[in-house]
Amino acid sequence: MKHGLLWIARALGLFALCSWLTRRELRILCYHGIWDGPGHYGNYLFMSPGKFRSRLAFLQDWGARVLPLPVALERLAQGRLPARAVVITIDDGWASTVAHMVPALEQAGFPATLYVTSYYAHNQRPVLNVALAYALSRWAAGERDSTLLPLPGLGQLNCPAGDAIALHRATDQVIEHASTLADDDARQAFLCSVISATGLAQDPVWGGPAFRLASRDQLREASAKGIDLQLHTHRHRTTCNGTSCLAQELADNRSWLTGVGEGPFEHFCYPSGQYQASDWEVLRRQGIESATTTEIGLCRRGENPYALPRILDGESLSELELEAELSGFLTMLRRISRR
Ligand SMILES: [Zn+2]
């Protein structure tokens, strides 16, 4: 249904019209990571290496003018943005990003900003919440006799096959429990016990880099290839025990990135896209120039620099849907419906 309507809108020239109407607006694309092994880990924003390469080819065919983030923001503010101006941003800094996305970007000659969260990049252990979510989703998808999963410290988790809500609830419960454990050693030991309880100990995915962020050396290499490393907090959070820890997180993140990326580190992406207006004063005091969100849309001149919308791309987004976003057609529809 949606595809049919988009196809008709495109055939009627509405994509081209919206592209012209929004020609002075900026398109900031948001990517996350790559999965290239068996199964599917990460969220819906992850994609296969082939899909990412085809996206870059599509951007070239579409006539995108891919600019570095600071240049694009400066030209947006001055009203000097070329038509079809695009910025490529990638969140988190997964090992798979450096292995697959960076060479593809280099080959295409496209600049990109990589927002690095540094805690797991530093300790080089599996990112706990993503690894736990993967283990539970594989267990829920597998054939088994019981819907109950016994886990240390949590008793029996009920997760019937095909029940997405129960899976979501169980995953939240497991991640929440892990966060209460004393330290990182305890949390990693808990992950091992979950892997064992879900019967996934033989899954080859655990031996690879799937759940790891790129190391300091890998990120340094990416930076040397022209990837702009920027801020995403140290521990992928802006609050701790209900109060803001954004200033400390930014300071830790910036300190870790110093000597890894070129700097200056003055562009930021909210972890999980979550922010509040009170964050803006903290960002201003920390000398941050821009902050991107996971709200969807194009950036207009005069947009709040600390609440920049993006276009979220992922495996399930078709080329037609991406074009509908890039052209500004869907942004225009949202603006009309808001009125
Ligand atoms: Zn993130």
From TrEMBL:
GO terms for molecular function: hydrolase activity, acting on carbon-nitrogen (but not peptide) bonds. Keywords: Signal. It comes from the Bacteria. It is found in: Secreted. One of its GO terms (biological process) is carbohydrate metabolic process. Its main location: secreted. GO terms for cellular component: extracellular region. The keyword RNA-binding does not apply. Residues 80-125, 216-289 form the NodB homology domain. PANTHER family: POLY-BETA-1,6-N-ACETYL-D-GLUCOSAMINE N-DEACETYLASE, PTHR34216. This is Polysaccharide deacetylase family protein.
